Amino acid sequence: MDEIPQIPHTVAMPGILSVVATPIGNMGDITLRAIETLKAAEAIACEDTRVTVKILERYAIAHKPLISLHHHSAEGKITEVVNVLLDGKNIAYVSDAGTPGVNDPGGKLVEAAVEAGIAVTPIPGASAVTAAISVCGFPMERFTYVGFLPHKKGRSTLIKDIAAREDATIFLESTHRIEKALDEFADVLDPDRKVYVGRELTKKFETHLRGTIAQIQAQLKEGSAKGEFIVIIAPTVRRAASTNI
């Protein structure tokens, strides 16, 4: 009796996960490639569907399935996105603002996608970190990015560590904590060391403050402490000199 030929089971090729940068404030700061990618995606994973809908409406991108994926999402949400990709669907991932993978669940999603054998491609664009670096006025060949300072546990230790570093350090701070952060650095930072504070980058009330910690505190009191802040502690004079050799 002849053997019955086996028919191979065909599995759909996995889709592609596109990590798409979106504006950090000014809606004009989006690339043509980002718009094309969002239009072509079969679904969009995003931190906040309400924020993403505004971008889709602004650029006349037809609404499509949105998958909410934020810091408080269960691991099952990441699995859900990976399964959609494994079914052959192309997905774009966007954060609320800027380049995904920085202070959002993007890193975990990319890790899970890579482990599942899914192709991941970056669609670069706006980033508060690189925007601040470009205008701070300090040598920035070497730096450490620490995200948001912790609210309580480890905060004091981290601030002391940052003050002791020779290289530049970048961190984010909220409108409710920026003055407290500057006060804390004033207690441990070399009084002559330079600092840059960017407020509401790319937005209507964009502000750039530069100087010593005392000068920054005075400038902030004369202006506004409302908004989103990014702070760069400049490299020490010794480190800055070594990078210019």
Describe, in plain words, how this protein is organized in 3D.
With 245 residues, the chain is of the alpha/beta class. It is 36% helix and 20% strand. It is built from nine helices and ten strands. Strands 3-2-4-1-5 form a five-stranded parallel sheet, with helices on both faces. A five-stranded mixed sheet has the order 6-7-10-8-9. Helix 2 links the parallel strand 2 and strand 3. Helix 3 (75-86) crosses helix 4 and helix 7 runs antiparallel to helix 8. The termini are far apart. The model is unreliable at 4-10 (pLDDT under 50).
Ordered list of secondary-structure elements with their pairings:
Blueprint: E1 16-20, H1 32-40, E2 43-46, H2 49-58, E3 66-68, H3 75-86, E4 91-94, H4 106-115, E5 119-123, H5 128-136, E6 143-148, H6 155-164, E7 168-173, H7 178-188, E8 194-199, E9 207-212, H8 213-222, E10 229-233, H9 237-243
Parallel strand pairs: 1-4, 1-5, 2-3, 2-4, 6-7
Antiparallel strand pairs: 7-10, 8-9, 8-10
Helix pairs in contact: 3-4, 7-8
Task: Please outline what is shown here.
The protein is an alpha/beta fold and 245 residues long. Helix content is 36%, strand content 20%. The chain is built from nine helices and ten strands.
